[in-house]
Design a protein that fits this description.
Blueprint lengths: L9 H13 L11 H8 L3 H13 L3 E3 L5 E3 L13 E7 L6 H16 L3 E7 L2 H14 L4 E6 L3 H10 L2 E5 L13 E5 L1 H14 L5 E5 L4 H16 L9 E3 L5 H12 L6 E4 L2 H13 L9 E5 L3 H5 L5 E5 L1 H18 L7 E4 L1 E4 L8
Parallel strand pairs: 3-4, 3-5, 5-6, 6-7, 7-13, 8-9, 8-10, 10-11, 11-12
Antiparallel strand pairs: 1-2, 12-14
Length: about 350
């Protein structure tokens, strides 16, 4: 039963759920999952979560981790072992970007489903790392961490020496053997760089520019995926069509696109993330070019801005739910059993999301 206007907030959803509970509309005294409720009410999961929090505080429902959410007051025999605290650590990011904010929401939701809680930390200096390690040593909190962001070998070496349970999400800035000593969850950046480029090639494009980020490992992987797709299609690789930005923000994509529109005049652009892609799209429109009529643009990341841009941005979507689930599965395994086997690397899937910023030639 979707709500039709913004005035229906989480309080109204909570009231509606209470009425449905009273009239015994839910089978087996169990509520549907957050995802199912979000779909039913045509709202996002954060709104549904806030509605459920109201019901939980009023003891209308109780949660039993992965078993689900049940109607009524939590029985005493349902109370399990000591609640764990999981830390999400973001390293060396000037802004809390959309990828990591969505990752945090997924981790928080799945940690809560397990009956545990999530804490968020940022580290931007050696002092920040030391403070985090002191908290873990003296307060025994958090119990384990998932770390992401602009990661260096030095950060991982500090964590390794502290003998704490850690899962690394993402690539190091620069390759180092230390990353192979940790459980990791990744998205194949070579794979999605190649996927984005192959999509444009299948549309008939041959003069394809890559707007890439700084010379970090992930962006180098995207470059390799782009190059692989180009050469496999029998297109001569041209390094002049690969442009590297000092940062990966919208303004960087905008600035670089301005320089190539008058000189290179590509028929298509692959951008290493949606921010760069949206910057390029704005530059093209400002220059009087039609997207996708004159230039096709594809991004990576499926950020919210790309869904409402004009035209909506074709992109590569990352399964952050699977990324979070894999990270926690590895971390809880370490908390239960320690690191008894060789570190694992798990990959989360990605997929092409076709919108209106690309067309054939």
């Amino acid at each position: 039963m979707p709500f039709e206007t913004e005035q229906y907030t989480y309080q109204k959803v909570a009231e509606d759920l209470k009425q449905r509970i009273t009239s015994s509309q839910f089978a087996n005294n169990r509520l549907p999952s957050e995802r199912e409720l979000a779909r039913e009410y045509s709202l996002n999961r954060m709104t549904i979560r806030k509605s459920l929090d109201i019901l939980e505080k009023e003891e209308k429902i109780f949660k039993l981790g992965p078993r689900g959410t049940f109607i009524g007051k939590e029985p005493l025999d349902a109370i399990g072992p000591k609640q764990k605290t999981i830390g999400f650590v973001l390293a060396n990011r000037e802004i809390f970007d959309e990828h990591h904010s969505k990752m945090l929401l997924e981790l928080e939701s799945k940690t809560k489903d397990r009956g545990d809680k999530m804490m968020f930390f940022t580290i931007n200096s050696e002092k920040d790392i030391d403070n985090l390690l002191v908290s873990i040593r003296d307060k025994h909190s958090p119990d384990g961490i998932v770390i992401s962001g602009l990661l260096t070998a030095e950060i991982l070496k500090s964590l390794k020496q502290a003998h704490i349970s850690v899962v690394v999400s993402g690539y190091l800035l620069y390759p180092d053997p230390i990353e192979n000593e940790f459980n990791r969850v990744l998205v194949d950046s070579i794979g999605y760089g190649r996927c984005a480029t192959e999509y444009l090639i299948k549309l008939g494009h041959r003069k394809i520019v890559l707007i890439n980020g700084p010379s970090h490992q992930r962006f180098l992987n995207i470059h390799y995926g782009y190059m692989k797709a180009i050469t496999d299609a029998g297109i001569e690789y041209n390094e002049n069509l690969v442009l590297r930005c000092e940062k990966d923000a919208l303004v960087d994509g905008y600035t670089v696109a301005h320089t190539i529109i008058d000189t290179i005049r590509p028929t298509a652009i692959v951008a290493a993330n949606d921010r760069l892609a949206l910057g390029a799209l704005n530059a093209c429109v400002e220059k009087g070019l039609k997207v996708p009529g004159d230039v096709s643009i594809i991004g990576i990341g499926d950020f919210d801005g790309g869904r409402i841009s004009n035209p909506p941005l074709t992109t590569i979507g990352i399964d952050r739910e699977a990324l979070a689930e894999s990270a926690l599965d590895l971390l809880y395994g370490m908390l239960r059993n320690g690191q008894r086997s060789l570190p694992q690397t798990r990959f989360a899937p990605f997929r092409l999301i076709e919108r209106q910023s690309c067309k054939g030639v």
